[in-house]
From TrEMBL:
Its main location: cytoplasm. The gene is EXOS7. PANTHER family: EXOSOME COMPLEX COMPONENT RRP42, EXOSOME COMPLEX EXONUCLEASE RIBOSOMAL RNA PROCESSING PROTEIN. GO terms for molecular function: mRNA 3'-UTR AU-rich region binding. One of its GO terms (biological process) is TRAMP-dependent tRNA surveillance pathway. This is Ribosomal RNA-processing protein 42. It is found in: Cytoplasm; Nucleus, Nucleolus. The keyword Cytoplasm applies.
Amino acid sequence: MDSLLISDAERFFIIQGTELGCRLDGRSEKDYRPVEVMTGILNHSAGSARVKLGGTSVVSCVTIEIGSPSFDQPHQGRLIIDVECSPTATPKFSGKSGSEIADSLKATLSSAFTPGCLPLELLCIQPGKQCWVLYVDLLLLESDGNLLDAASLAIVAAVRTLKSPSFVYF
């Protein structure tokens, strides 16, 4: 986690830039990074999306299966998030630090996407017995800041385009 901390020089640079209203990439303090969201990019998944936020790029893929609800939320489905960092996304992702960043991001996203954030009660099949479990896999392809924003947007975009599996009853 220490690799995510910034040096005194970086802190000074950020403070000065904020006070002067300028950024390294030329945007003003009120300008957003360009956002691009593409959904349905993976044909063999229940939902998928690619988000580009400035120079950051994240792909999300949702798979769905029937499972058991958690004991503390028997009337809701479950959302399980996994994060992988491409070692080519940035030098910070190579080696052990990439897995540390992925673990940190996974923990943050898992705590952010609580039952109040998504309507997980819609995923309940039989209270206390069966529910839909959504597995969201994120791949960080490029990193140029705003990783948490891009990852969150990729999750929401993929879940919103979710296709439920079709069933054949005998």
